[in-house]
Each structure stands twice: as C-alpha cells, then as structure tokens.
Design a protein that fits this description.
With about 1400 residues, this protein is an alpha+beta fold. Helices cover about 30% and strands about 25% of the residues. Among the domains are: about 150 residues, YVTN repeat-like/Quinoprotein amine dehydrogenase (Methylamine Dehydrogenase, Chain H); about 140 residues, no CATH class; about 150 residues, no CATH class; about 375 residues, no CATH class. The strands form 14 sheets. Strands 27, 28, 29, 30, 31, 32 and 33 form a seven-stranded mixed sheet that branches. Strands 14-18-17-16-15 form a five-stranded mixed sheet, with no helix packed on it. A four-stranded antiparallel sheet has the order 4-5-6-9, with no helix packed on it. Helix 16 runs antiparallel to helix 17. Its main location: cytoplasm.
C-alpha cells in the first residue's frame, strides 16, 4: 500500500496518497469526545500499516483500524481510446488507482497521565508518560497484564561494564521527553525532561526483562532524538541549535560521540547562534541524510557523517533580492515520503485556511502542508559503481547525468521547486582507457545536466525509481522501479521495456543492478517461482526472459557489484559470493556464462546484514608484494572492501601459504586463495571509490583508495613506491592514509585528472514578480526556486602538502611529476603555496615546524616556480609578503632570474612586488633593466606598460601599482598596427593620387593618443627625459646595426617621434657609413631579391627554357614558404615570413590592441604610394592593383588588371615581365620601404633615401634627392658621403652584382652633374674623415651611449637564416659575371 502522510491539528486528521498527492480520508472527532480526549498530539503506524495509534492531550490513546473497501477506488486514470495502456496488467488497480479507505476507532485507552512520546515496535506500542512510567501496550489495546516500568528503577551508568551501575534518576519528576527505537542497536535512544540523554536497552531478548541504561555525560540540553538504523547512530537535538550524534561502543556499551551538526559563524555569521533549540530531526528512508529544523524556522540537510548539503538560513533563502530579511519557514511537523524523494512539511506559521497552490510544485494540498521534492545520488541505494567516473543523480521520474556532449545538456529548470540534492553514496561511471580521450571537456565543460525523463509507460505501474545504473562509456542507463527494469540508450534516445508485461511484474530487483560491457547484471526475486535469482540481460537483444541468463541464488541478495569479470553478491545470510562472468558469442546474440568462484561467510564479523552499506572488490593490497616492478598484480581482485555502518573493513586474500604452486596453477585458481581476517581501515566512511584501470604513469592516483567521510572531508589511502626500483625501506609503510578537506560534497573521483566532481544547490529568486505589500507573502517569495548544478574541485595540492608534512617529499615529487601534464597543474602549485602561506602567516601562535620553506623548496623543482611565487604573492595581502619572500627568496633575485630566463611578463609582475617592497630607486633600476630587455625583444605591449610605470615612479604616482601586462606570446617582431585595418593601393602612379594624401608631415611627426601626449605635454619632465634617453639609445643602436625593419616597428608601436629624432641625428647615427653593406643588409632584411640582367640582352641557349623555369620555381617556392610561415595571420592581409614582417604579423595578444590607441586614427591617412613619373621605366607594380585585400594566398602578383591581361604579349615582353616580378620583393616589404623612405625624406636623411631608392630601383626617388641637394643648403659632409657611397656601390655592382648596372647607368648623368657641383661647393671639406658621425659621437659623448652596440649585435640577429644567406652571397658573387643565369636563380633564392 502506498505510504501516506497524516496531519492532526485540533481534532481533525487526514491521510494522503503520495502519488498522485490526493486526500483519501479525513476524520473529525465529535464535540463531546473531543472535550474528553483533548487535542491530538502524535500518531504512529503499525508496522504492517493496518492500524494507527493516536495520542491525545488528556492522556488517551486512540486505536484506529483502516479497512479497505474492496474493488472500490476514489480515483482512476482515464486513457484516450486506442491508447496502448492496457488495463489488463496485473496489479493494475492497486498501482494506478487511489484506494478508498475508511477509519474506524477500535479502542480507547486511558493512561491517566500526559503522554510525552509514542513509539511503535514490531507487535507492541511503547508509551512514555509524564509521570515517569514506560508502558508496553499490545496493538489490540491490551496491556496483557504487563506492568508499566518506572524509570526510577532503571539503573543508569556511563557504560555497561561499569561496576558502580547506580541510577541517577532517583528523583520524582524525571520523565522521557522524546524517544526512538533502534532495531540494529536493540534499544531506545531517549531524551529526558531535564535535557540529559541516554540509551535504554533490555539485558535479555524480552523487553519486559530487566532494563539497563547508559547516558552521555556531555549533553545536558537535549530536546529531541532520531535514530539511523543503517549506521547505528543516534542524533540528539540540543537547545543551543546543534545536533550531537552518538553511537554505541561495541566493546564497552558506552555512548560514544561521533560528530556534531552545527552552523558555523564563518558560513552563517548573522544567524548561527540565533536559530533557537532544535525542533525536529528526521533521517531519510535510505538512512543517507538527515533533515533538521529549529524553533525559529529553517531547514538544513546533512549527510550521515555531517557534511552540510543545504541550509535555508543563508543566501537567497534568507534574503530578498532587495536585501531585506525574510521570515524563515517555521515547521511544526515533517516526514519523508517514499524513497526519500519528497519531504512533507506542516508549515507552523501558516494559518488554517490558507491553501497556496504554486506552479513550482511546492504543493499545498491542504492548509499549510508543503511538499518539497529532492533528487538524490543514484548510488545512495545502488553503491556498486564506485570504480567509475560519472555523476548520476536520480529523481522519482528522471535521471541527471554529467556525461554527453554540451549540446544535449539541459537546464533542470523543470525538475521541481526544490530539487535540493541529496547526494550521498554517489559514484560515477567512467572507466577504462577508451574514455580517457573523451576527457575533461565533457565532464567539466558546462554546469548543467543531461536530463533523461523515465518512460511514462514504465513509470505508471512502477513508480518511483528505486535503482539506476550507467555503463562505463556513459552511453546507456538502466532504471529499476517497483517491478522489473528498463534501459535507455543516450545515443539512439530510445527506451527498451519488457515486451511481456507479466515478466516485468513477476520480478522485484532486490540487490541493485550494474552494467558489465553490453550486459545488465541484476539480483532479483522471482514472484512466480518464489526464488532468489541473479539475472544477466543483453542490452542489444529484446528485453525478454528468453534472452536472459538466470542463476538461482540461495538467499536474498542485498548488494551487488562488478569488478572486471567478477560479480560479487552480498546476501542476507551475511555471506559474500564471487562469480566469474564470461562473454560467449553464441549465434546472433552473445550470451554471458556465469560460474561460482568462491563463497566467504562474514557472519562472524557482521552483527546485522542491513548494516552493510556497500561491498566492493578491489585490487588494493597492503603486503610487501606491492612494488613498481610488478604492476600486473594491480589488475587482480585482491581484497573485499565492506562498509559496515560507516566502518570500512578490508578483507585481503591470504598469501601466507606456499607460493610455489601459484606460478603453476591457472589464473582461475589464483582467485580461489582464501581471505584473511578483516582489518578496519577507517571510520565514518560514507563512500568508497576505487578503479580497476591501470596507468603506469599515474600509479599513485589509480591504485589509491578514495574515501568520503562527511563533515571531516575526504581521505585517500595512497600507495608508496620506492624510487627507481630501489629496495624499499623496511620502516616505510606500503600505504598511508591522508585526510584532506574539500569545499564540495564529493560524488565522483576522476582518478587520472586528480579532480573530485560534485553537485551544488543553486537558487533563483523571483520575488520581483510579486507585490511586497500583498497580505499573504507568496510561497515562491518565501522559498526560492532551486537548481542543482555540477561542480568540481582539485584535490592534488592537499595530498602533496600532507606528504610533505610527513617528510615524504620524494613520494610527493613522484606524484607531482606524474601529474605535471595536467592543464591546471600550475594552479595546483599556486594553491599549495597560497594555502600554507595563509595558514602559517596568520597563525597567532608561533609554528614550531613551519611547512612553508618545505613547500617553497618543493616548488623550485618545477619550471613554473617563478610564475607560481609571483601569482601567489599578487593574490595575497601585502602584509604576508615578507613572510612569503623570507621562504622563497628575495624578489630582486627572482626578478633577475626571470630576466635571465627571458620570461619578461613574470619579471613585470615581480616589478610590482618590488615597487611595493623597495624604495623607488630600486624599482626604477629594475624597471630600466626590464624596459631595455623588452625593447630588445620587441615586446611592445610590455614596453608601453614600462613607460607608464617609469613615469608613475617619477611623478610620485607609484602608490597605485600599474596593471601587470597581460601575458602575450612572444612575437619575433611587432607590427604597424595602423596598416592592418585598411586597404590602400600602394603602387599606383603619383598622378592618380590626390595631393592631400601627401600631407603627411602632421600625422607622422606628432602621433596622437597617450604616447603622443607623452612626447608633447610632459617633455620637460625629468622622468620623460630619462625614458626618452633610453628610447633614443635603442633607436641609435638599431640604426647603427642597420636594422631598419626593427626601427620602423619600434617607432610605430611606441609612437616614437622618428622624424624629429632623425633630424637631430642626421650627421651622427642617421648617417650611412657603408652603402654596400647597408644595401646588402636591407636586401636580406626585407627579403628583397637582387636585380637580374634581362635575358634578352645576353645570348643564351636557355633563353626560353631553363632560365624562366628556374625563376618561376624559385618565385613560387619563396611565395609558398611565405604562406606557410604566415598561416596564423588574418587572411585579408598579404603575408611575409613571420620573423621579418612588421605588417600584420602580430601575435594574438597584440592583435587585440586598441587600434585607436597612439597611432590609430591619425595614421589612417598615411596613404603611401610610389613617387613615380609617367616617363619612368615600366614597373609591373603600376599595372597591378596591389592592395592589401586583393592579394590572394600570399601571391601578391596574382590579381592582374583586366586591361593588362587582355593584351597579347610577345615572348620577350613576357620575359621582361617575369624578370620584373622576380626582381620585386614581397608586397609588404614594398609598403614598409616606402614608409621608411617617406620618414627619411621628411627628416632630410638623404643618404638613406638614396639607399632605399636603389633597392626599389626607382630613379624618380634618386632624382628627387638630387634635386633637393641642388636647391637646398645641404651639409658638405652629406654630399661627400653620398658621392663616395654611390661610387662604392658602382664598383660593387661591377664585380658582384651586375643586375644593378643598368639602373646605375641610368643615374650616371645625374651623378656626374652632381659631382661637378660638389667639387665646386665642397672643396674645402673634401678631406673630412669618412665617418663624421663617429667623431661627433666622440666629441659629445652621452650617458646613454655608454653601453657599446657591439655587446648587442650577437643576440639581435633579426632572422634565423641571415648568416647562411650572406655566406651564400659571397660564394656566388664570384661567378655572377661569367654566368648571369646562375646569378638569376641565385637572386630568387635570396628572396
């Protein structure tokens, strides 16, 4: 019969059916008898649900019979016509119709004293009255002549062994206030009216015999009691709001304190001591959780051993969204529904006539009755999958899984108003190597669940769900209701139910179920044959007994578990039976064959079979056989783990016999080794996790045993391995038990990933929908909507700390190295350092043996040491820094280590530490070091931060530390950011360009944005001068080393006023010393090919064949390599090899840089186009649209103008074009060179303009320079330098690079003309030193020039293959004159 709830207020009381929740019968007392009996106080069911006893205020007990009207039903389900639901199924009426019941008062018993407590035993009712008597009454209302027991005659002592067993209840008015019978302890937990608590037990089997009591000395303020039969616990509520939980010591019989349930000031600062006394305590039907409520209201849910799961006195439960406090829900009575899915509550604050029906399924069935819904871990009831790695929660009609891809996950919004999770004994299912690849993304990827709704046809006759299980791959689930079972595939989204409903209704699953490969293994009772059975069904075949493997079992199976190919059953006769299971491919459907391996009787050790919470077969063992040399033994079933009422007992195989036979015998007989006597491993255990997987890299984690111990956190029983196959120390234990605390309730352990998975209750407020001024506050406002969310936590740092505390540093290193590849391993080290630091630095007492130095030394073993320390420091209060750095080392030394390791971002973080801990001079010194290194490496973001930082130190803003630069991927060179976001044609002829585009003076010389302000507004500040000196020094070094590309990048990224600086340095650093070397260097830096002599001008048999092919191949080769090197760059931007380009090849972090900063908006107009005249020699560039966006896959010349492609070209013209193409460099280099050309023209560095004009081979550029030289007053040294330089280039071209000769010949007349003018004007200065810049430098040495440029040249090779290219250049130059074709192919190679 379905369980019912009753409510008795005044003289009414009612009965409800749980599913559906409807009123069946109510009873109202007549007025006359009502005044005689007084109001109803308490009620008790008879164990067979045929009677109810009710106590009243005036000391009467009323006995009611519940006769059922046969074949009469109050409610029946109605189905539409043609519906598949058959009414002919067995038990149809009982299952789906609400029965019609009557209530008849059978007997009234007057006990002539106020009744304080009523307790049902098997055939008796025990009643405690306020006059200090205990009455034992038969259910038929007779006392059977048994006398009431006077409490003052019961002897009480501290324990049963105590010789001075005297009563302490020697005075009149002591009576029992509350009591509850505990079957597994065979006695009563009692609370007396003076607040003392005790346990009364009969000294012999009959309760009428002599009673003896033990009492707890520590409790003097008890209010109520509840007992947990499965774990043999007694929970006593106290007036201070805490719950004290006791158990009975097996040896002495004394009451032994187990743990305490109490709110902490840390979690509930404003309510923890204002709850009032504990009012009610209720254990759930599966004994896994306990619900507590207080006089002042509120509900809290705790696991067996004290882990808090829910409390409604904090957070959204206690406050409205506007911050005002709610009145907590006051509860006058509560009880759990079937299977613990519902909590039925009578709202003490509710008035009689309020019925609040809500959408949120908080049903108010009558005045003030509330029903809260829960989901619980699937393995509260089916603890067989502790070796798998998924979380599975079950509700009355649905399952929640943490597997499946993110798209399938649904928000469990519709679950219930209050799907507070009752997650105990939870385990998960994710095992074997196949799954490792599915990995963390699916298990941790999102916070919501994959919700599987149970098939309605199955639920109709089998509500509610009792067991559920998931397979290893997380692809199939099986569920068990009242009868039969059903399974579901997450891949096909289909259910399989029994085709024959009679077969389903004839089996009741008793011991749970488990998956073994494709088979479902379950222990059941066959109602037809009245026989206990073990059945195995194949998932892929139809669900029918014809396809099942059935094995008869002697007695009822209480628990079932699977380990590799062994099924383990725990039976009601306290015996354990092991079966081997084997797959046989017979015919179309494979079958599983099962054989009994071994039976072990445990009746000597187990007082009651109901006390066994879980039974697991594991490969864990303790004896010396464990070592790194023999990992194969880890696979075998070595021991049985029994959770006996919270005590974890291990039964190992006995290997003490002769070991020689073991090698000869087959593997089957090895399993038949007998078991030793059991050993207790741990107390207060709720869950056990272990895996049968093997991973040689992570043996520590996979061969460990993980325990969840409620409020005291978790424990791990970790194996210790000798290092490097050394002989183990004789004094070193093989395993060690390490306790650690985590912040979530553990539901599954991911062994290799060192993670614990859990679930957490989240709440959603929706009180804004309602009017606060309404007379009756809505229930939704009172109680928020609850959602269960997935959560996870790292535990590795706790274990490493525990090992270090025990001086097992070597083991900690082994474990840490095995996990070093985990993505969150850096976080583990950080947490480890942070937690030890917080604990020790804030300790009030001095710590005799601090752990921090050990942890610091441990972390230095890993390359992440420097980052770990600084990240930890940045997340810790400044007050603790001195303590931290006393252990890890001076931050100045750590900063220098970062610089040596080229880890500049970490060094920047240390700079912030130094700024707070040292005087400004020290931080400026270190900032300067870092700034210079960042300039060298082209870390432009960091450079900008450093400029700001140095300015802050100078202007006294250093109180606010600058933000640490975001870590960026080191990019070999930066980029001209402002070229990225526009499309301009850079090779059109000058005439087509509006003249306004050339007005670049303003935009280039005075960049805007923050850096621009720096150059203008603050330039008189000494700090800015200091920064400028460093920037100037860097620019000078770049020019001296002819690193024009780096110079351009530097200027663009830092908003450096290049033109102004070049003007000042025109005769010094910005003077070209050796034209030939400069020319070669620029060719190499910009990947610009040396020119080739047109083939038509030389007689060669290869004129149309080999030469052209060579050029084409080399060109393609150079372009394809470019495209490979530039895969990562946005497709719209034409690419050049990454290490050379400062256009667009920007690493991801720089890409995100705000384009509007420094040079963005104003540079947008810098439209750079070649300064060509129409009469210039034909350039392919002028006929091709070389915009950034038009170039395809890096082939910058592929999009040819339509008019051009329409022409019919002769062979020689084609050849000329192909040579032109071969002698042009990449499009980006062209843009860069033109930009630099403009800069140098603006600054008046004419020698550089000449060099760039030579490379571009555009005579217009050089003519322009010559005309400037003729018209302006130019320093004679520059004249002389250019003349000397051009002559040197001419000589070099004659010997080494004939391709330049035609172009130089075009310039000859101009040069001649120039020479004449030079001789006239510059005669007196003709004998100046060849390198005026050096003399100038020597005559005016400056502080920033003290560092010689030579010291940097080695490290600043701008590109990896530069050395080999230059060597190649020298080798081939000798043959160029004789073999121009060889020279041609050589040029392409250079490009």
């Amino acid at each position: 019969m379905a369980l019912r709830i009753k409510m008795h207020q005044d003289l009414n009381w009612s009965e409800f059916l749980i599913e559906p929740s409807v009123l069946i019968v109510s009873y109202k007392e007549l007025t006359k008898s009502a005044s005689q009996f007084g109001s109803y106080k308490q009620a008790e069911w008879r164990s067979d649900s045929t009677m109810i006893a009710v106590s009243t205020a005036n000391g009467y007990i009323l006995f009611f019979d519940i006769p059922s009207a046969r074949d009469k039903y109050l409610y029946e389900p109605m189905y539409p016509k043609g519906s598949p639901h058959m009414k002919g199924t067995p038990h149809y009426k009982e299952e789906q119709c609400a029965p019609s019941l009557n209530l008849e008062m059978k007997k009234v018993l007057d006990l002539q004293a106020s009744i304080t407590s009523l307790q049902s035993m098997q055939e008796d009712l025990l009643v405690a009255t306020a006059d200090g008597l205990l009455h034992l009454i038969h259910w038929n209302g007779m006392t059977n002549g048994r006398k009431a027991i006077n409490l003052s005659t019961v002897p009480f002592s501290v324990d049963l062994q105590s010789s001075r067993a005297g009563s302490f209840l020697g005075f009149e008015n002591v009576h029992i206030r509350d009591m509850e019978y505990c079957e597994t302890l065979d006695g009563f937990a009692v609370v007396f009216n003076d607040g003392r608590v005790g346990f009364i037990t009969p000294m012999s089997s009959r309760f009428t015999a002599e009673l003896h009591g033990v009492w707890a000395q520590d409790v003097a303020d008890g209010t109520c009691v509840a007992v947990n039969n499965k774990y043999r616990l007694m929970a006593f509520g106290c007036t201070n709001g805490s719950v004290q939980v006791y158990t009975i010591d097996n040896t002495t019989g004394a009451m032994q304190f187990s743990h305490k349930l109490e709110l902490t000031p840390k979690q509930y600062p404003d309510i923890w001591n204002k709850t009032g006394p504990v009012k009610l305590i209720r254990w759930s039907p599966d004994s896994c959780v306990v619900m507590v409520t207080w006089e002042c209201g509120g509900l809290s849910l705790w696991s067996v051993f004290g882990a808090q799961l829910i409390c409604t006195l904090g957070g959204d439960f206690a406050y409205r969204s506007d911050g005002t406090k709610k009145d907590p829900l006051k509860i006058s009575s509560m009880t759990w529904g079937s299977e613990g899915y519902h909590l039925w509550v009578i709202d003490g604050s509710c008035s009689q006539n309020v019925g609040c029906e809500t959408d949120a399924k908080s049903k108010a069935c009558q005045s003030g009755i509330l029903q809260f819904q829960f989901i619980k871990s699937a393995l509260t009831v089916n603890p067989c999958m502790s070796n798998q790695e998924q979380v599975l929660l079950q509700g009355e009609d649905r399952l929640y899984l943490n597997c499946g891809d993110a798209t399938q996950a649904q928000n469990p919004r519709n679950t219930s108003a209050h799907s507070d999770h009752k997650c105990i004994r939870e385990r998960a299912t994710f095992a074997d190597g196949i799954l490792v690849s599915q990995g963390l993304s699916t298990l941790l990827g999102h916070r919501h669940w994959h919700v599987v709704q149970i098939h309605s046809t199955y639920l109709e006759s089998n509500w509610p769900i009792r067991f559920s299980a998931i397979d290893k791959l997380g692809q199939n689930v099986a569920v068990v209701g009242k009868f039969g079972f059903a399974h579901y595939s997450l891949l096909t989204k289909k259910w399989k139910l029994f085709g024959n409903i009679t077969q389903e209704q004839n089996m009741v699953v008793t011991g749970g179920l488990a998956w073994w490969n494709d088979f479902i293994v379950l222990a059941c009772y066959n109602l037809n044959d009245r026989q206990e059975e073990l059945r195995i069904y194949l998932r892929t075949s139809n669900l029918d007994n014809a396809f099942a493997q059935v094995i008869k079992v002697q007695s009822e199976t209480l628990l079932l578990s699977v380990f590799r190919d062994i099924v383990i059953l725990f039976r009601a006769d306290c015996s354990i039976c092991l079966y081997s299971i084997e797959r046989r491919p017979d015919g179309p459907n494979p079958t599983a064959s099962v054989q009994v391996l071994q039976e072990v009787s445990m009746s000597r050790y187990i007082p009651h079979p109901f006390l066994v919470v879980s039974v697991t077969l594991t490969s864990v063992r303790t004896e010396t056989g464990i070592s790194l040399k023999m990992p194969q033994q880890a696979c075998e079933a070595e021991s049985i783990m029994l959770n006996l009422a919270g005590q974890l007992i291990m039964v190992q195989r006995d290997r003490s016999g002769p070991q020689i036979r073991e090698k000869e015998s087959s593997s089957n007989q090895r399993k038949l080794l007998p078991f030793c006597a059991p050993v207790v491993l741990a107390q207060s255990v709720e869950n056990v996790w272990t895996t049968c997987r093997v991973n040689k890299q992570k043996r520590h984690l996979l061969e460990a045993l993980w325990l969840s111990c409620g409020g005291s956190g978790m424990k791990v029983w970790l194996p210790l391995f000798p290092r490097d196959h050394r002989k183990p120390h004789s004094f070193l234990s093989r395993r060690i038990m390490l306790p650690f605390h985590i912040n979530i309730y553990p539901l599954a352990v991911l062994f290799e990933d060192a993670l614990v998975l859990g679930a957490v209750n989240d709440t959603v407020l929706y009180d804004c929908l309602y009017n606060q001024s309404s007379a009756q506050e809505h229930l939704e406002v009172l109680f928020p909507f609850c959602i269960v969310e997935r959560t996870s936590q790292i535990y590795l740092h706790h274990i490493l700390c525990q090992l270090l505390v025990r001086n097992l540093g070597e083991q900690a290193l082994l474990l840490a190295h095995s996990c070093a590849t985990l993505p969150y391993f850096p976080h583990v080290l950080e947490l480890m350092l942070h937690e030890v630091l917080e604990e020790e630095a804030t300790s009030r007492e001095p710590i005799p043996d601090p752990l921090l130095p050990t942890v610091a030394k441990f972390i230095t073993e890993f390359p992440l040491f420097l980052q770990t320390v600084v990240h930890c420091a940045r997340k810790t209060e400044y007050a603790l820094w001195n303590y931290l750095f006393a252990a890890v080392g001076n931050p100045k030394d750590l900063f220098e280590e970062c610089l040596m390791a080229q880890d500049l971002d970490t060094a920047a973080s240390y700079l912030i530490i130094l700024q707070n801990m040292e005087v400004p001079a020290v931080s400026r010194q270190h900032a300067t070091l870092l700034f210079n290194t960042a300039l060298e490496q082209g870390k432009w973001d960091l450079c900008r931060h450093m400029i700001r930082f140095l300015k802050a130190i100078g202007s006294g803003e250093s109180d606010t530390p600058p933000a640490t630069p975001t870590p960026q991927e080191p990019s070999p060179s930066g980029g001209f950011e402002f070229f990225r976001h526009r499309s301009i044609s850079l090779s059109q002829s000058g005439e087509n360009v509006p003249s306004s585009k050339f007005n670049l003076q303003k935009t280039l010389s005075m960049p805007s944005g923050p850096s621009g302000k720096r150059w203008s507004k603050d330039s008189d500040c000494a700090e800015n001068m200091y920064i400028d000196m460093m920037l100037w020094r860097h620019a000078r070094r770049l020019l001296e080393e002819i690193r024009l590309k780096d110079l351009g990048c530097f200027a663009a990224q830092l908003g450096f006023e290049l033109i102004g600086w070049l003007c000042k340095e025109r005769t010094r650093a910005a003077c070209v010393e050796d034209f030939v070397i400069t020319l070669k260097k620029l060719h190499k830096d910009f990947l610009w090919p040396f020119p080739v002599i047109p083939a038509s001008s030389i007689n060669s048999p290869f004129k149309n064949g080999k030469y052209k092919t060579a050029v084409g191949e080399q060109l393609l080769k150079s372009q394809s390599t470019d495209s490979f090197l530039n895969m990562e760059v946005d497709t719209g931007v034409p690419s050049a090899p990454r290490s050379h380009s400062w256009l667009g090849t920007i690493s991801s972090s720089q890409r995100e840089m705000d384009t509007a900063s420094s040079h963005g908006p104003h540079m947008q107009d810098a439209f750079l186009s070649p300064l060509l005249n129409k009469g210039d020699e034909c350039s392919i560039g002028s006929a091709t649209d070389l915009t950034e966006t038009s170039s395809m896959v890096d082939g910058d010349w592929t999009m040819v103008d339509e008019n051009f492609s329409g022409l019919s070209l002769t062979q020689s013209e084609l050849e000329h074009i192909s040579l032109e193409l071969a002698s042009k460099g990449p499009h980006k280099s062209q843009v860069q060179l033109r930009y630099l050309l403009h800069i140098f023209t603006e600054a008046g560095c004419l020698d550089w303009c000449i060099v760039i004009g030579l490379i571009l081979r555009e005579s217009s550029v050089i003519n322009q320079v010559f005309s400037i030289m003729q018209t302006s007053e130019i320093d004679g040294e520059i004249w002389q330098n250019i003349k000397t330089g051009l002559h040197a280039v001419d000589r070099w071209a004659s010997t080494d690079c004939p391709g330049y000769k035609p172009f130089l010949n075009v310039l000859k007349p101009q040069l001649q003309k120039l020479s004449e003018i030079t001789e006239e004007q510059v005669q007196p200065e003709a004998f100046q030193p060849a390198n005026p810049s050096k003399t100038a430098e020597q005559s005016s040495p400056r502080a920033e020039e003290s560092r010689s440029s030579a010291s940097h040249s080695a490290s600043l090779q701008s590109d990896g293959n530069s050395c080999s290219v230059s060597r190649h250049e020298e080798d081939t130059s000798r043959t160029e004159e004789n073999d121009p074709f060889q020279e041609g192919s050589y040029d392409c190679t250079v490009s």
